Structures are given as C-alpha cells and as structure tokens.
Amino acid sequence: MMDMNMRQAIADALPHPALILTLDYKIKCANGFAESLFETKLAGLDFVRVLRQPGAIECLDKAVKTGKLKTCDLVLHLQTPRTFKASAASLASIGADCILFTLTDISAEIDAEKSRSTFVANVSHELRSPLTSLMGIVETLQGPARNDEKARDNFLDMMHGETRRMSRLVGDLLSLSKFEAKEHVTPKGEVDIPRLIRRVIAVLNESKPEYRNRIILNAPDGLPYITGDQDELTEVFQNLTENALKYSEPDTPVEVRVIQNEDTIKITIRDQGEGIAPKHLPRLTERFYRVDKGRSRETGGTGLGLAITKHILNRHRGMLSIESEIGVGSLISVTLPT
Ligand SMILES: Nc1ncnc2c1ncn2[C@@H]1O[C@H](COP(=O)(O)OP(=O)(O)O)[C@@H](O)[C@H]1O
Ligand SMILES: [Mg+2]
Predict the structure, then answer these.
(1) Ligand 2 ion: nearby residues, β-carbon < 5 Å
(2) Which class would CATH give 115-181?
(3) What tens digit of pLDDT does each residue of 137-148 get?
(4) Is this prediction's pTM over 0.85?
(5) What homologous superfamily does CATH list for 4-105?
(6) How far away, in angstroms, is 290 Cα from ligand 1 center?
(7) CATH 3.30.565.10: does it fit domain 185-338?
(8) If you write DSSP's letter for every residue of 123-177 in order, what string do you get?
(9) Does ligand 1 come within 6 angstroms of the Cβ of 303?
(10) For ligand 1, is residue 318 a contact (CB within 6 Å)?
C-alpha cells in the first residue's frame, strides 16, 4: 500500500499539474503546479467539483475500468481559456487504489499551429493575385492581342510589374524566415548608426523622385558604436524611413534623430503623414498586416517590413515603439543597447 508521503512524492516529482485521486474521485494530494493552476489547496476536495468537466470524468472512468493510461483534451476557463492534455492512470498495478491525473498545457502548440496555417493561407493568397493577372495577360497575348504591337508593350510592362511584386514578396519571405530562425543568436559586429542611416538616406534619395531630399537627419558626433549586424540594421532603417516617406505626402519632411542615452542609442523617425488609427497600432508588426492593403500594394509594399524589423530588433535586444495620430503623423522609435 502506498502511504501519503509516497503519493505526495510522486505528485511532486512531475513537471506538470498533478493530482492523486481515490477511486471515488476525492483528491488525496496535489503538487504545487496544480495548486497554483487552480489557485487553491486541493487535498480533500471533490475532483468533480474542482474540474466540472464531463470529459475529465469520462477519462477517469475509462482509466479505472481498463487499468490503462487514458488521455483527453480539456479547455479550462481560467483567466483566459487554455487547452490542456489531461491524462489519467490507475496505480492499481503498483498496489495502490488510486489514480494519477496530470494536465499539460498545450495552448502554445495549438496557437502555433493556427498561426502557421494562417500564414500559409496568407502567402498563397498574396502570390495568387499576381499569378492570376500574369496568366490573364499571357492568354491575351497568345489570343486577341497576338498581332497588336502597342498592346504587347503595355502588357509586357504589366507583366514586369507583377513579376517584380512576386519577387519582392519571395525576397521578404526569405528574409523573414532567416531572421526568425536566428532570432536567439546575438549578432556580432560594430555598427556606426549615423553612418548607416546616412547611407540609407542616400539610397532612398535616388530610389524614387518623390523621396528625394525629404529626410532631415539630426545626429550628434562621437556616438559609440553598437554591437550589431550592419546589413540587418540597414534593412530596419530602410524599411522605417521608407514607410515614413511612402505613407505621407511628397512635399512633407521626414525627420530622423539619433539620441544617446545612458546605455542605449535611440533613433526616432517622425513623419507628417496620414497617421495610423490607435486600433491598428498593436497589430502592425504582424506578418501581412496593412492598414490599407490596396494602397500598400500600389506602392510596392508586402506588409512584411515591420514583421522583419521586429525580428531583427529582437535579435539585437532592441525595442520598437510606434506612436501615431491620424492627420498629424507618426513617430517611430528604435532603442538599441550600446
Ligand atoms: N509611417 C507610417 N505612417 C502610416 N502608416 C504606416 C507607417 N508605417 C507603417 N504603416 C502602416 O503599417 C503597415 C505595415 O508596414 P510594413 O510592414 O512596412 O508593410 P508595407 O509593405 O505595407 O510597407 C503599412 O501597410 C501601413 O499601413
Ligand atoms: Mg514597409
């Protein structure tokens, strides 16, 4: 026969919430994980009253009847609903008239699976629209527009636009997966932030006429270098400053400031653009999240820029904050440790 100390020792040895029950489902003992999960002392209570889950009772019944390990999924409505894999095992085989009941939180796995399938659906959707339009153009060129030279030039331009869009999307997807994979590896290298930003500005000035000479940089001399990856941080500031230029009128300035604090460097990017409504702010770094899908596509956006930015900053132990007011503009801040 198993004594109380042994039962408690078994429950305490498990890395998940665990209860030992009598054959009439009274709780004999519980480990610390179980007590913090249910936020109460459990020993002596009735299992049925604590859990109130028909699925769990059924699982216990089966375990007792068959003498085998039985499992089931349970959704517990704690502060937030969480899904657990519950298992019930009769301890009769070691001469104890009791049942070991454990719970494993599988909410994170379920969320990860959901977000994976949403991601695949989004990628397919984003690739399908340029593909559909390419297919339409090819059919037109093979058929009705076969001998129309002028139409052919137009269509070729359109095809060029669609293939560029697909290529940007695939490029951003590859970046995203690369940075996700190495998010927990700290980067090596020395980066002179003002110099890096000057280079980004020079590239943007040349990239589109409507971007030219709008960025005003304000950076003190003699800033310490930060530890980081040159190419990745270039990608961050390229995306943030391009967003500032892109989502504001061509005659408005974009102000970039570099500020040194005690053990961080803060870079702020302020635009006088359309601004972002508060409800969108928490979601902007989600993959493919765009306030205005059509608008972002027209300007060559994939909706992945801020997701990539966030991953790179996590890797650098940096922070991203976005403040914005509709009709006034946005202020994006990046803080990086020196
Ligand atoms: N400075 C800004 N002003 C207004 N909206 C912005 C700004 N920066 C980002 N956004 C919004 O956030 C969305 C996500 O940005 P991002 O991930 O870079 O994707 P995109 O490829 O569309 O630029 C954009 O589509 C836009 O709606
Ligand atoms: Mg962008």
Answers:
(1) 239, 243, 305
(2) mainly alpha
(3) 999 999 888 888
(4) no
(5) PAS domain (3.30.450.20)
(6) 6
(7) yes
(8) HHHHHHHHHHHHHHHHHHHHTTTTT-HHHHHHHHHHHHHHHHHHHHHHHHHHHHH
(9) yes
(10) no
